[in-house]
Amino acid sequence: MDIYFISVVLFFAVLAVLIYKDRKNIDFKYIVVMRRTKRFRDLIDKVARISPKWWIRIYTFAIALCFIFMFVGVFSLSELMFKILIGLVKQPGLQLILPTAAASGAVGPGYILIPFWFWIVVIGIILIPHELSHGIAARAEKIRLKSVGLMLLAILPGAFVEPDEAQLKKTKIMTRLRVFAAGSFANFMVALSVFLLTAFLLWPAFAAPGVQLLSVNETGPAYAAGLRPNMTITEINGNRVEATYMEHLNGKGYFVDEAGVLEKGDTLSMVSDGASYSIVPVFSEETNTTSIGITYKPIFRSNEELLLSTVIPFFNMVWLFSFAVGLVNLLPLYPLDGGLMYDAVIQKYFKKRSKIIVKATAILILLIMVFDFIGPVLMNL
């Protein structure tokens, strides 16, 4: 019996019952279910009234930041397309992130499957600050909120804030840009906060000094020097080994910084349990790299399995996906916030040709995105 799968089924069963009982207060539009409420609107008003001037200053800064990331997003998509065209990228450059009813995730060409409960919590952490930030920006600018609430797009949960569009259109361009930029700015702030929390509080609280050897190649120089599996390396070339969060993310190996750049003929000194070991790495002429024939992992003070299988992956997912959603949302595509920002600027400076420019840009970006997704398959035909 798959308990995880049953829990997902029960979740949707309970959700269906709640929707049915509250059906008089719910709007049904095809596959979209929307539940409006005044509670979030009152909360947004209270937060916005704390200091409207400061909120306006914050979201003015958000405009500049979001236009920078809009450029970064378009440039990244274009660079990816170029790499696919010249054959440097062989797999789909864009990934669909989808939930799975299984307890473990999976990765394949063009998709990432995330365990349902991870996925739904992460979606909430991403969408709720995004929409609340839109609402705060609107109320700080004294724009009425027509509705606030929760929604379900097929099986995709979300939240929404609906400013008075007629009132918003009559405002100055900077006001509109602040409201549009607020959502992605909130995503970036969540991503930054969670990243800093994970890197400088969570990881250091549990990571212990040193790395543990998982395997030692019996024909390699490390084995010849006396190193064996399960030994703990605490010092390399006189430097204390500290496994950092950034090394965990980029897979550098947890002691590359301590060992430095090794060249042919260099000697590597390691310390384990107070004993020193001198190793001469094997140099590969083909790859121009050195190897000593070991695999290893960081050491944690407690709950290692829980940390590496659940806690750290969850926090990684939160900050990474929050940043990714904020970045994608800033692409100049309607009805994304980036599309609204781009449209506002183009209308301001190119009134007569604004519709053509906006549509042409949107088509170009969409074509690039489609190619980044299916291009590697087409190039390999």
Please provide a written account of the structure.
The chain is α+β, with helices and mostly antiparallel strands and 381 residues long. 55% of the residues lie in helices and 20% in strands. The chain has helices at residues 3-21, 39-49, 52-85, 116-140, 165-169, 173-206, 221-225, 245-250, 256-259, 304-329, 337-349, 354-379, and strands at 26-29, 32-36, 96-100, 106-108, 111-115, 145-153, 156-163, 207-216, 232-233, 235-236, 239-240, 268-272, 275-279, 282-284, 289-291, 294-300. The strands form 5 sheets. A 4-stranded antiparallel β-sheet has the order 1-2-6-7. It has a 4-stranded antiparallel β-sheet with strand order 11-10-12-13. The chain has a 3-stranded mixed β-sheet with strand order 3-5-4. α3 crosses α4 (116-140) and α3 (52-85) crosses α6 (173-206). The radius of gyration is 26 Å and the shape is globular.
Poorly predicted parts = none
- Order of strands in the sheet with most strands: 1-2-6-7
Element string (H = helix, E = strand) = HEEHHEEEHEEHHEHEEEHHEEEEEHHH
Number of helices: 12
Largest sheet: 4 strands, antiparallel
Q: N- to C-terminal separation?
A: 42 Å
Number of domains: 2
Briefly note the structural class of the backbone: alpha+beta
**Strand tally:** 16
Helix content range: 40-55%
**Percent strand:** 15-25%
Overall pLDDT confidence: 87
Instruction: Give me the Rg, rounded.
Output: 26 Å
**Overall spatial form:** globular
